[in-house]
UniProtKB/TrEMBL annotation:
Domain WYL, residue spans: 123-190
Cross-referenced Pfam families: HTH_11 (PF08279), WYL (PF13280)
PROSITE patterns for this protein: WYL (PS52050)
The protein's name: YafY family transcriptional regulator
Species whose genome carries this gene: Cronobacter turicensis (strain DSM 18703 / CCUG 55852 / LMG 23827 / z3032)
Keyword Isomerase: no
InterPro entries (UniProt xref): CBASS_pafABC_assoc_protein, HTH_11, WH-like_DNA-bd_sf, WH_DNA-bd_sf, WYL_dom
Domain Helix-turn-helix type: 3-47
Keyword tags: Plasmid
RNA-binding among keywords: no
Source organism, top-level taxon: Bacteria
């Protein structure tokens, strides 16, 4: 809104930010409750008072490098939906940075190589969808010896290793935690069946089984 001299509609903001119109209305009401002076209404549009200044989100040069390197990696090594989300995040970060830090985005000094195995990118969107929706996955999988099998699994997390992508899951056939390489999956179907356990509980149990500490990353 700050970049518009005239009222901008919620639909325009929603299209630009890739969210729903309902989310825009909700966020505008939240900002108003926090004291942000926004004028307008649904159907007409909204405008931000020119004398209102949002507190800046400040990053130093190292934090900008870390953020942009990570987002560029996501653009190269994940599915199209996450790639688009990463690009939007870069644009939002660029918009709030002072000129000297914005140049680190325009002319990055840290580069990300493309994935060496394109097969490792297949099915990522479906797997992420199943994880978020807490749905089981039906897999047709080929092992290292070329033997194919069908599995019904409860997806827990995706692991992005140097050369491969791995799915950590609970396998109903083996009644144990298992790891499946994405590039060896021949078919992935998001089942209508819900996982009977919470993903957070499964994640905690999986980490414990792998000897991974339950440490915060922030």
């Amino acid at each position: 809104m700050r970049s518009h001299r005239y009222p901008v509609t919620a639909a325009t903001l929603a299209q630009r930010l890739h969210v729903s119109v309902r989310s825009i209305y909700r966020d505008i009401e939240t900002l108003k409750m926090q004291g942000v002076e926004i004028e307008g209404s649904a159907g007409i549009g909204y405008i931000l008072q020119s004398d209102y200044h949002l507190p800046p989100l400040m990053f130093d040069a190292h934090e900008v490098d870390a953020l942009i390197l990570g987002l560029h990696w996501v653009m190269r090594h994940t599915d199209p939906q996450l790639e688009a989300a990463a690009r939007n995040a870069v644009a939002k970060i660029h918009a709030i940075l002072p000129e000297h830090l914005a140049q680190q985005i325009n002319y990055p000094s840290l580069m990300v190589a493309p994935p060496g195995n394109e097969g490792s990118l297949r099915f990522l969107a479906d797997i992420r969808s199943a994880i978020h929706q807490r749905r089981k996955l039906e897999l047709v999988y080929t092992d290292k010896d070329g033997a194919a099998s069908s599995r019904l699994v409860w997806p827990i997390a995706l692991g992005f290793l140097d050369a491969v992508r791995m799915l950590a899951c609970w396998c109903e056939l083996r009644q144990a935690f298992r790891h499946f390489r994405i590039d060896r999956m021949q078919q992935v179907t998001v089942s209508e069946q819900s996982c009977p356990q919470s993903r957070y509980k499964l994640l905690k149990e999986w980490k414990s089984s792998q000897g991974i500490a339950q440490a915060k990353t922030y």
